[in-house]
Design goal:
Strand content of chain A: 5-15%
CATH topology of the largest domain in chain A: Rossmann fold
Number of domains of chain B: 1
CATH architecture of the largest domain in chain A: 3-Layer(aba) Sandwich
Structural class of chain A: alpha/beta
Largest sheet of chain A: 5 strands, parallel
Order of helices and strands of chain B: EHEEEHEEEEHHHH
CATH topology of chain B: Collagenase (Catalytic Domain)
Strand order of the largest sheet of chain B: 2-1-5-8-7
Number of strands of chain B: 8
Oligomer: heterodimer
Number of helices of chain B: 6
Number of domains of chain A: 3
Largest sheet of chain B: 5 strands, mixed
Strand content of chain B: 15-25%
Radius of gyration of chain A: 31 Å
Largest interface: A-B, 23 and 21 residues
Structural class of chain B: alpha/beta
Amino acid sequence: MKPESVKILIVDDEDSVRDSLCRWFKADGYCVDTAAEASAALKKLQENSYDIILLDIKMPGMDGIELQSHIKQIDKNIITIIITAYATVDTAIQAMKDGAFDYITKPIDPDELSKLVKNAIEKRRLITENIQLRQQIDELLLPDEVVGESPAIKKVMEMVNIVAKTDSTVMILGESGTGKELIARAIHSRSARKYFPIITINCGAYPEGLLESELFGHEKGAFTGALYQRKGKLEMADKGTLFLDEIGNISEKMQMDLLRAIETKKITRLGGNKSIDVDFRVISATNKDLEKAVKEGTFREDLYYRLNVFTIKLPPLRERRSDIPLLANYFLQKYRKSMNKDVTGFSPQALDMLTEYNWPGNVRELRNVIERAVVVAKGKEIKPEDLSFPFLSPLPSNMVEGESLEEVEKRHIEKILARTKGNIAQAAEILKISRLTLYNKIEKYNLKR
Amino acid sequence: MFYIYIAPIALDDHFCLERLEKELFNTFKIRTMIKNIEIDLKAAFDIARGQYNSSLILQQLVKNTPHDAKKILGVVEVDLFIPIFTFVFGEAQLNGPTALVSTHRLHNRFYGLPENNELMTERLVKEAIHELGHTFGLVHCLTPKCVMNSSTYVENIDQKTAEFCPPCEKTIKSLLNRETRFPWRNDKR
């Protein structure tokens, strides 16, 4: 911080002290303001912002200690330095406990004050930098990719917001590609642990021995090839969140070890004998029916209940078709920017195809289809020929075998509402029914946005 | 014609004044003159501290400023303080007409070392230029060798030179130039 950008306020009832400090700081190039009493200081604080405030303890009316608490209420990051006489050192210590940066005893050595102010400015700079970095992190974290306005996804986000404020374990259930990791990240980024890491491990991707080493880490020489000591994911997630994906795929021994780690919040690296304290929140996800696995005895009941304090069930994309245009557009914008292509939208036929398709691979599949479409699109619009569906449904989605008439009607209304972006008049016209009938059907099928 | 007046106040160390006069002229290119000014030092004495309040001496200097003074530099031998500090080497009015320096803590004998008049004069010259620099509007400089670098102990004074660093040199030249063209500006303060 350049001296001219540092604003200092001196609060002292003694003219001579105020003047001498003011001259001293002005000679250093700082921006200096003075106040003879607490009320004047508070008034100045309402009009200006200061980096450092020097406060005399003994002042008529409100004393320095009380003034400091008022200042900290206005801005807890302002650096306060207490000015005191020898007789009031105890009070100065109290002021330090209340958040003062330091205290100076009158008269002070010029060199001491110079160093003290330099340190205070450095602390202020670090605080400001820290606030700016946190804001940047918040900005990076907030626009997560949970896109959708359907009642189903809104309910999920409500649950995310509720559970994020707690430290409970969460189990996210949903088909492959529904965005389980995204929800885990959304919970983490809204939680008090957001400034610490979220560590993800796909339990299904490792053979048992390797998973154990990945989770718990190992000491040097713990096994052949363990050339160095290595921290495990549980240790890396300290103070943060551990996201265990595909939790249904772990062995019985791993289930036992994991349960112990979650319960005791202590781990021991492979080949080590030292117990290490860890503090993490567990979010797990699976696309397996764990309840069934518990009944069949392949998944420990105690671990299941430990992981499953709060459950979030993610709807498959086919159950929230109204979100398809929103999601398609979101991915289009994303890939358009990264590929620097001038594709601005979808043709109505292409949008129909996207809305009618059954999406067995859910949002992940939709994302891949749009990414490919942006690559191959020649014009400004994505057309049906640009879309390719890797898993074509055996039947068109509007002719699903075994579906009742009501289900087909619900899906068709949903599709039309998605196409008209919720415009009731337009949708009623396309469906050739009255607006009232359409309202009744929206109510009946719970299609309200 | 405007002058930088050097006012020795109850000063026995007159040996340093001739060199001081010369160095100030070389630095500021303004004619310098030694002039005795009536100052009541006792009025600035603080019994409890056994030191002299430099701000009170400065106030007296302001009252007694000759009409043709561009700046006036008081030189004292007594130990100076301003209320919040244990001591000061000197004090100046930022953008004002007066400055004050003390030789008290510039002597080697103050630190229990053999007296060295040459070194003391060198320190006095640096502090005088520093305080007068403030009166022209310069603030402290972070360049260690620059005369405007803040000195809170005597070793600091020895480490810096009696010269301005290039940016301060540029600033002081433009300030001096402005004051030469519009001499009434600062004198009205």
